[in-house]
Amino acid sequence: MIQPFYRLTTLVAQVLILSLLLVACAETQEVQPAGEKLLGFVFDYDKSEVAITVVTKGCTGKADFSIRVSGNSIEVQRKKVDACKAMPETVVFTYTMGELGVDPNKAYTVRNPFIANPNLAAIP
Questions:
Q1: Which of 8, 43, 47, 103 has its CA 20 to 30 A from that of 71?
Q2: Residue 70: helix, strand or coil by DSSP?
């Protein structure tokens, strides 16, 4: 009579330990953020500027973005989530080519997804 109870208790304990390990592993995995959804990306050769058009919900600033140039590719990452509750709207941020390390005489590929609807761009 004791053996079936012992087996059941052991099985429940093993399932519980395995569940806790899976949860702990899932929490420690680092997820790479996806590139920012862009509404626009413009090179202005005459002004030596790069402009990005993104969505704000009221709390987005130029410093909230990191623009990574690697070889022939450019990727825009949002460093800080815009947690404000305002209606989504578009905003343009301008950077000099010098501050980004962009060569104006080189062809680049922008790795970010583009979207036309600012209301959908705000959805993760």
A1: 47
A2: strand
